[in-house]
């Protein structure tokens, strides 16, 4: 799945393209000089290798209420099947992000600092495109490979 984050003034919007050609429009969110919520979530879930956090569920076909698409039975089933993983991922993401923002050392300081520098360097209407990939066979709660920045 390819996710494009677009800087629009003090906001961010994203669009994901899930194979084969499903477009998933994300919500607009405040950004200002900080990392947008869904972008730091992507960075942290990727670095931790979380398979079924928010982004893994989007890649698997989840249809969340906050996304700009009709909720489907299949999309709701993805969420229901991975609710514990989603809750755990949210907790991990929040713990790392808020510690990082408070300048407490985290294992992901390098990744978050690098992405913040990329975000701040973007001109208005600039984009950051990232790839989320899930391996063909998985170990519960872990991904074998990290998404690559494009």
Describe this structure in words.
Helix content is 39%, strand content 17%. The chain has helices at 37-48, 54-59, 73-81, 83-101, 109-121; strands at residues 2-8, 11-18, 22-25, 29-30, 127-131. Strands 1, 2, 3, 4 and 5 form a 5-stranded antiparallel beta sheet that branches. A hairpin with a 2-residue loop joins strand 1 and strand 2. Helix 1 packs across helix 4 (83-101). It is α+β, with helices and mostly antiparallel strands and 150 residues long. The protein has one domain (2-129). Residues 136-150 have low confidence and may be disordered. It contains 5 helices and 5 strands, in the order ββββαααααβ.
What attributes characterize this protein structure?
single chain, about 150 residues, alpha+beta, 5-stranded antiparallel sheet, 5 helices, about 15% strand
- Main sheet: strands, sense, barrel: 5 strands, antiparallel
Mean pLDDT over all positions: 89
Number of contiguous helices: 5
The separation of the N and C termini measures 12 Å
Give the number of DSSP strands.
5
- Given the C-alpha coordinates, what overall shape results? globular
Order of helices and strands: EEEEHHHHHE
Structural class: alpha+beta
Give the low-pLDDT segments: 136-150
Percentage of residues in helical conformation:
25-40%
Radius of gyration: 15 Å
Strand content: 15-25%
Number of domains: 1
């Amino acid at each position: 799945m390819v996710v494009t984050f677009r800087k629009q003034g003090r906001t961010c919007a994203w669009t994901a393209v899930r194979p084969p050609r499903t477009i998933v429009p994300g919500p607009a969110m405040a950004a200002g000089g900080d990392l947008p919520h869904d972008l730091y979530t992507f960075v942290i879930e990727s670095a931790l290798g979380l398979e079924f956090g928010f982004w893994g569920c989007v890649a698997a076909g989840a249809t969340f209420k906050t996304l700009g698409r009709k909720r489907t039975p299949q999309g709701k089933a993805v969420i229901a099947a991975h609710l514990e993983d989603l809750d755990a991922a949210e907790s991990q993401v929040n713990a790392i992000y808020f510690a990082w923002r408070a300048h407490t050392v985290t294992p992901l300081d390098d990744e978050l600092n690098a992405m913040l520098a990329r975000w701040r360097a973007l001109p208005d209407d600039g984009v950051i495109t990232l790839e989320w990939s899930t391996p063909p066979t998985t170990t519960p709660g872990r991904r074998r490979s990290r998404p690559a920045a494009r």
